[in-house]
Specification:
Elements: E1 5-9, H1 15-28, H2 40-53, E2 55-61, E3 64-73, E4 83-90, H3 99-113, E5 118-124, H4 128-136, E6 140-151, E7 154-164
Parallel strand pairs: 4-5
Antiparallel strand pairs: 1-2, 2-3, 3-4, 5-7, 6-7
Helix pairs in contact: 1-2
Length: 172
């Protein structure tokens, strides 16, 4: 019988399980440009902040958190308020099984319902899987920031993608 994927809003109590997914990306890859793994408390604070204005979703299978996706501020200036930056992380044991796609599709739908018009996502290059995921859920490639991040003694490029969520913000 196929395993059921459940996607739900995150809660601060998910912080330890989600940080366990994120930790290897910080410690061993340039996928994340963080160089120090955040504490569980810091991760819980990030979840709480995302839930105040954007969204943070969790994918669960058989009661285990296997991935997450969230929206956050694109830029601080008021004119950017209808744009959102998004990210998705999936445990490596669950890559290429549709988890990231399911998380992103639900996240983008919920962000559009909240009034966000444009979603932006950056992916460190090379990363064929992430590029394919973003294109597969409707993102359009818009450019590369060359040598924008330095981690593990090497410069890394970041490809940027955009997806239009809705034509205009809610009136009012």
């Amino acid at each position: 019988m196929p395993e059921t994927l459940i996607i739900r809003s995150a809660v601060e109590a998910d912080a330890a399980a989600l940080l366990a997914i994120y930790r290897p990306f910080v410690e061993s890859t340039a996928v994340s440009f963080e160089t120090v793994v955040p504490t569980v408390e810091e991760f819980a604070t990030r979840i709480a902040k995302a839930l105040t204005g954007w969204q943070w979703l969790v994918a669960e299978q058989e009661g285990q958190c296997i991935g997450y996706a969230y929206g956050s501020s694109h830029r601080q200036r008021q004119a950017y308020r209808w744009s959102v930056e998004v990210s998705v992380y999936v445990h490596p044991n669950h890559h290429r099984r549709g988890v990231g796609r399911a998380l992103y599709l639900r996240l983008l739908e919920e962000l559009a319902q909240k009034g966000f018009c444009n979603a932006y996502a950056g992916t460190t290059l090379p990363n064929e899987g992430s590029v394919a995921l973003h294109r597969g859920v409707g993102f359009e490639f818009i450019g590369v920031f060359k040598a924008v991040g330095r981690k593990f003694g090497t410069w890394h490029d970041v490809a940027w993608f955009q997806r239009i969520l809705r034509d205009s913000p809610p009136s009012g």
